[in-house]
UniProtKB/TrEMBL annotation:
The keyword Transcription applies. PANTHER family: GNTR FAMILY REGULATORY PROTEIN, TRANSCRIPTIONAL REGULATOR, GNTR FAMILY. This is GntR family transcriptional regulator. Residues 7-75 form the HTH gntR-type domain. Coiled coil: none annotated. One of its GO terms (molecular function) is DNA-binding transcription factor activity. It comes from Virgisporangium aurantiacum. Pfam families: FCD, GntR. The keyword Oxidoreductase does not apply. Keywords: DNA-binding, Transcription, Transcription regulation. SUPFAM superfamilies: GntR ligand-binding domain-like, Winged helix' DNA-binding domain. InterPro entries: GntR_C (IPR011711), TF_FadR/GntR_C (IPR008920), Tscrpt_reg_HTH_GntR (IPR000524), WH-like_DNA-bd_sf (IPR036388), WH_DNA-bd_sf (IPR036390). Transmembrane segments: none annotated.
Length: 241
């Protein structure tokens, strides 16, 4: 049982230290507290501390050097696709810049996958996509159900495109972002009807095997749906950098 207990403790330490690095409490170039200090703060052994430091190094946040301690590395080397790092970035990003970047990355990848899907989609996937669109239309009065089925619609397109790497990247970053109220928020009044119309245009383009239209409508939907939500998350005002 001890290794699993140590693993859980290590995860807790890593989460706390990641939070402090991302928030700036531990600045770039600064040394982390020493092993004895971390042991005392978290009530853990040196073995757990060392395992935690290794995990932080794997995430690109720190570098441990004999005789110099463990320094925080520049942000350029951080693994932003790591779920712990990404979650902390979203939580501490007051200007929502990381979410703006996430939306741009998602739009670029999903546009490509929508276009590819329109080129290669087969009869069975066409039928499934058409059914999902019809079902999505029945959910516009149930925001929670609609948002869940919205995700299914997008994932059906990505899967049908055959771009497994693109699907994996979007699924990873989008799944983590959806857990944050800073990304989702409550849909503005009437937004689900607008969203449904956007999905219907995407679906129609794919079912008509029109890759250019599919890409155009997908990008417009992803970018504009974020623009509708973004100001609402901050009392109607877009945050300044």
């Amino acid at each position: 049982m001890e290794p699993r207990r140590g693993g859980r403790l290590g995860d807790t330490v890593v989460a706390h230290v990641v939070d402090r690095i991302v928030s700036g409490s531990y600045a770039v170039g600064e040394s982390l507290p020493t092993e004895p200090q971390l042991c005392a703060e978290f009530g853990i052994s040196r073995t757990v501390v060392r395992e935690s430091i290794k995990l932080l190094e794997e995430k690109g946040l720190v570098k441990a050097t004999s005789g110099r301690g463990t320094q925080v590395l520049p942000r350029a080397g951080w693994n932003l696709l790591d779920p712990v790092v990404l979650e902390a970035q979203i939580r501490h990003d007051r200007g929502l810049h990381i979410l703006d970047d996430l939306v741009e990355v998602r739009a670029a990848l999903e546009c490509d996958m929508a276009a590819r899907c329109a080129r290669v989609i087969g009869p069975a996937d066409k039928e499934a996509l058409a059914r999902q669109l019809d079902f999505l239309a029945t959910c516009v009065d149930d925001p929670e159900r609609y948002l869940a089925e919205d995700v299914v619609f997008h994932e059906m397109i990505m899967a049908a495109s055959g771009n497994e790497l693109g699907y994996a990247i979007v699924h990873s970053i989008h799944a983590k972002a959806r857990l944050s109220g800073r990304y989702n928020g409550m849909p503005p009044a009437g937004d689900l009807a607008v969203s449904l119309a956007e999905h219907q245009r995407i679906g129609a383009a794919i079912l008509a095997n029109d890759p250019d239209a599919a890409a155009t409508h997908m990008r417009r939907h992803i970018v504009e749906s974020w623009e509708r939500r973004r100001p609402a998350l901050h009392g109607g005002q877009t945050p300044t950098p």
